[in-house]
Structure of Formyltetrahydrofolate deformylase:
Amino acid sequence: MESDIAAADRRYILTLGCPDETGIVARIAGFLADAGAWITEAAYHSDADSNWFFTRQAVRADSVAGSIDELRARFATMAADQFHPNTEWRLTDSGTPKRVVVLVSRESHCLIDLLGRAERGEFPGEIAAVIGNHVSLGELTERFGVPFHLVPFDDPQVSRSAAFDRVAAIVDAHEPDAVVLARFMQILPPHLCEQWSRRAINIHHSFLPSFVGARPYHQAFARGVKLIGATCHYVTAELDAGPIIEQDVIRVDHSDHVADMVRQGRDIETMVLARGVRWHLEDRVLVHGGKTVVFD
Amino acid sequence: MESDIAAADRRYILTLGCPDETGIVARIAGFLADAGAWITEAAYHSDADSNWFFTRQAVRADSVAGSIDELRARFATMAADQFHPNTEWRLTDSGTPKRVVVLVSRESHCLIDLLGRAERGEFPGEIAAVIGNHVSLGELTERFGVPFHLVPFDDPQVSRSAAFDRVAAIVDAHEPDAVVLARFMQILPPHLCEQWSRRAINIHHSFLPSFVGARPYHQAFARGVKLIGATCHYVTAELDAGPIIEQDVIRVDHSDHVADMVRQGRDIETMVLARGVRWHLEDRVLVHGGKTVVFD
Amino acid sequence: MESDIAAADRRYILTLGCPDETGIVARIAGFLADAGAWITEAAYHSDADSNWFFTRQAVRADSVAGSIDELRARFATMAADQFHPNTEWRLTDSGTPKRVVVLVSRESHCLIDLLGRAERGEFPGEIAAVIGNHVSLGELTERFGVPFHLVPFDDPQVSRSAAFDRVAAIVDAHEPDAVVLARFMQILPPHLCEQWSRRAINIHHSFLPSFVGARPYHQAFARGVKLIGATCHYVTAELDAGPIIEQDVIRVDHSDHVADMVRQGRDIETMVLARGVRWHLEDRVLVHGGKTVVFD
Amino acid sequence: MESDIAAADRRYILTLGCPDETGIVARIAGFLADAGAWITEAAYHSDADSNWFFTRQAVRADSVAGSIDELRARFATMAADQFHPNTEWRLTDSGTPKRVVVLVSRESHCLIDLLGRAERGEFPGEIAAVIGNHVSLGELTERFGVPFHLVPFDDPQVSRSAAFDRVAAIVDAHEPDAVVLARFMQILPPHLCEQWSRRAINIHHSFLPSFVGARPYHQAFARGVKLIGATCHYVTAELDAGPIIEQDVIRVDHSDHVADMVRQGRDIETMVLARGVRWHLEDRVLVHGGKTVVFD
């Protein structure tokens, strides 16, 4: 499927991580220059702590002769020859829309925001399906022309494990680039964390690592913090401990009860998740050693 | 001692906390109206959770006939008659400068900021003395005309307990309104936490409750958070768990190593501590049940 | 029409502004105490510059014997006797839902956010109608069960003045508590600014007073500012000069072109407008002398 | 003069701006790879609007054989051959401390902050001298061991022009890398704006372009804005219109009178100026077409 973005706006995006050494930038820049590529964005990061090198380069698709597959093949040949075997790289085409599946429960704020952004073309992709463990958000989803799948988790006839099998079947049928847990309120089993590694994105309603787990606004109220926050992170088997993509906070004071925090927190959750999802879909997030590099 | 603030700017400040019930506002407002008091600031808070009522009122000193002692006596009589026995209240005079003792170690950023603010009259008070457990900040302190007391904590001849006795003796000689731990790096013993309860103010270099204890910027770097913060709180016997007065954060990203976080964190520590100290000295902070109400 | 909020959550809200003098707080507090009113929120402000006093009090509706009309009548009697003739006051019932009419053009982000908030009950009111000068947002509006009225401004058969007459007729038929210009892109004629004074709320996509008028993001890009913002304000006859209710900003840098500013700006516009509308509907905004007092 | 930074922390810093075209990154990266340079930071920006390319590269000094002068000569040869004649570039050595002259009037907050940062080594340089148009800050300056020069602007015997000649003589004697106007309150004459172009840095106490000129906090109070700010910018002949390096804001509300804004504004001015000065001294700020690119 080809998107309808203008030719001048279409990009090939190279992301790469490898052990740091002298000359990497020159090799990549030389390769792109040889391909005639017009670089519109280039970002680099060397992490002295882990001695790891990261880069993201965006080039105009129409500046490169030949297909992206040919470019990918040439880069693979060069990388095999000149880069460390542990190197990880991807070359993607912004003209190929990404697919997103969203998992929800009863809270509508993140879902409606994502549906609105997708509808007005803010993401380089589309929401292929929404899966809910309650019926509450079905009608809202369908108003936006997106299919809704109900998978109850409180049906005594269906085990939790079987319910997750159904979720996985629906998700995997879409081969999504992102599985977004938009206040899903169910903890993914370890095998799905593994299977959707670096693709499953959660929004947690606290400024992690504070207030892991349930009812973070109640925890925040009890502690008397002066700011509340939200954290967008990749899902890993350890609860609320995956690589953090984005965080933000909002000021509260003594006059804010838990219900006020919940209401104000929704706005932060919505914004933080939207930024995290966009960066992920634009291939701006690289992961290494439990942390992210975000080239925003 | 009388300060030199203009008569029109001098305030009597009433702070009060008590079990909530109907009519409290009317009783206080009636009392002040009878005294002819011109209210310049009035703030109220009812905490539904603890059923506790809080207020802070500032009145022009020159609008009240008679001395503050007479006003205090009249309020005491009224309160004994009309308020719950658990009521806590204070009536202070902004024309009486507050006294502050600052405890430091080697880091200069908070100290120099506090000395500068005190010198230009930003606080309603003065820094009476600085106590350091290293000699490093002695010369800086004395440049500002403030006495510096060296109390080493690494002298094999002097026990930690004896060192704290010396600190306490110096502090208590000043009868300070605030004991400010400006990156003191020593944990107060429980009896001093108790003795200086609601007067000892610490700055912790993380967004609590994240990263309690030592080396919080190292912890933040390891976790890969996208914001770092600082927390100003009253000191209690439980480490980094006292009532929070103020917090703030600053954005960091993957390019910020620990040393960058330390540098940027200094600015947040400095600002957060300065706000907390000012609010405390202006009688804007009320404490109840491990949390603060800040009428800023 | 009665709303379905729980009896314990229903409030009578008194807002009052008058020339400042000693004893006002006592008179109001005394009045409320006599009525048996349980005050849940009380905020005061004395503006020394204009010598004006402002207050907002929220009391539990179920703590007051008799109807709100009786309470209003008693307050009117007291106020006539004891308050300055220039005093402005209102007594409203949070159990009476507010009505909002939204004016839009082609941009969906503010509208969808307002529709979502209204649907999940975040506002004490409902969106009674949406008026658009383009057809673009009609279908979106109707998905949320809200009537949409198309009033074109580019029809050569219909003068601009006649188009505004149609808008006004639709608006006024709803007797709305707020007329929200959610990126309406048309300048209200002076007589409507006057007619909807303190009810017409606009979102301007800059941090006013910077970048008044058209294409503020282009102006911001050309100037090279490091933050962009949005401003929610009451509409007055002078363009973008009405009393400011709320503002906020977001950081941009050299890598953000105009299109990036437009995208990021949408999020700020959305949040700032939502806060402004909520505060207005909750009777938290008082206006005096071209400025607002917001008791949030 | 050589600084005492550790060899491993010493950097050669290349900054370059030129008309954008394909292959620039490759040429620079190739050059650095040939020199054996270990790149620790690399940042690029292509501005589509002006078709201008910007880069900043930091390399470990100890990774390059030969002196910086040799490297500079080789780069000049390559650039003359391979880069557009309008290219602007610099190659600096972080081991050569920068020199700063600070111009002040009566307000101490920015000055004391800069003196403190310089003293604790936060800037890659030193404050060589302070020039004041009042005597007020002389004693403070000298406490930090920095020479203070009094140049009065209110002496009827000395014309404004003659006073500026004296200022210029003192400044130029130090050949400073930065001339910092830390609330100097005097408008530089055009010939000094020209002479110190891209070196004279001002802090303006508003969020420009709002509230140009005198008494911006009074203007902000009168307009009723909900945020106040500060702007650090290069000085140009047009008042408060030079390229913006950094800006920030702080929230205010109706309870903040002008004096409160002045007090809170000081903190923002201090932080914004400190960031701007540090970025400038670290060669992180490139200027083109009235705007800055800041590689922070």
Q: What stands out?
A: Chain C has a mean pLDDT of 95. The domain at 7-93 of chain C is CATH 3.30.70.260 (Alpha-Beta Plaits). Helices of chain C lie at 24-34, 68-82, 109-119, 138-143, 160-173, 190-195, 216-223, 258-281.
